[in-house]
Specification:
Strand content: under 5%
Order of helices and strands: HHHHH
Distance between the termini: 87 Å
Shape: elongated
Largest sheet: none
Helix content: over 70%
Structural class: mainly alpha
Number of helices: 5
Number of strands: 0
Length: 153
């Protein structure tokens, strides 16, 4: 082994480990400190949805075409939700590439592990949040009569 090949032996796997670490930090920071953009209240969201349904029904009855949907904007939360997994996937790819190029196996394994943890953590947290929301929604629907009171219409 020549002296010039020494630093290169860790270049790709080291970069992968760095990207995996950055991605994991972004995902953790966004989960624990986010969302960073202000969100409308539930009442505002429900009111806007009801108004959209009404306007859509009026347009359909009049035979007017539906307006083109507006593209979703890129806010801080959406950028962070996208950048974290991209960095994780990049870490996995660089870790696998470093395995193929026979770089240091431990650093390459760390790169792949950090990338997988980045993607896995985000998937796990979103899955838990969705399950908790479904359970809460089911509980609200089961107890709707107690929440709203008896209705004799």
């Amino acid at each position: 082994m020549s002296a010039s090949s020494g630093p290169r032996r860790h270049l790709i796997s080291g970069l992968g480990a760095l990207l995996g670490t950055l991605g994991f930090l972004i995902v953790i920071a966004h989960f624990s400190a986010g969302p960073f953009e202000p969100k409308p209240t539930i009442g505002q969201t429900i009111g806007e949805t009801a108004a959209d349904i009404r306007n859509s029904a009026v347009r359909a009855l009049k035979g007017q075409p539906a307006p083109k949907p507006e593209p979703a904007g890129w806010d801080t939360d959406r950028i962070l939700q996208t950048v974290g997994p991209i960095l994780g996937a990049s870490a996995i790819i660089l870790g696998l590439l470093s395995f193929v190029l026979r770089e240091d196996r431990k650093l390459a394994a760390m790169s792949v592990s950090l990338g997988a943890m980045t993607i896995g953590f985000q998937l796990f947290t979103w899955t838990v949040i969705i399950i908790a929301g479904v359970i809460l929604l089911g509980y609200i629907l089961m107890n709707l009569t107690q929440i709203l009171g008896e209705w004799n219409g």
